[in-house]
Specification:
single chain; Beta-lactamase Inhibitory Protein, Chain:B, domain 1
Length: about 140
């Protein structure tokens, strides 16, 4: 009888652990729903259709907030802040390099996303060659 009782206690503990784990996963899923593109769109039903479509495709447009950009493009590789007397501007950098093992770097682009007052004010995309020229000119002092 004692063996049966010990077995029941172990089964109950194992079941409780499974229930706790299932609840934990459920809570994580509910919380992460807000941290996805579709979750963002659901929580902002008044979003313009063109903006919504661009956002869901991973594109960004002027007027998007930081959360939208992070959800659409991911985390930037670099964040720079320029502050003047009148305003503060934040710049997020997204390098995009296509790498093919047999050919090396095939194409590279750098997307700079400029924020003013927490919203995208400008987007600048330059090729790897242009970036290389800019760096050469800066080093030369031009």
């Amino acid at each position: 009888m004692q063996v049966v009782r010990v077995f029941q206690v172990r089964v109950e503990r194992a079941s409780m652990k499974k229930i706790r784990l299932a609840l934990f996963i459920l809570v994580l899923l509910l919380l992460s729903a807000c941290a996805t593109k579709s979750g963002y769109v659901r929580s902002h039903p008044d979003m313009d259709r063109a903006d919504r479509d661009a956002f869901l495709e991973g594109d960004i447009k002027p007027g998007f907030d930081k959360e939208m950009v992070r959800l659409a493009k991911g985390s930037p590789s670099n964040i720079t802040t320029n502050t003047t007397k009148s305003a503060s501007e934040e710049i997020w950098l997204y390098p995009d390099t296509l790498w093919m093992p047999l050919f090396g770097t095939v194409r590279s682009e750098f997307t700079y996303v400029y924020f003013e007052d927490g919203r995208v004010s400008k987007i600048r995309v330059i090729s790897g060659r242009e970036k290389y020229r800019e760096n050469i000119e800066k080093a030369a002092g031009n």
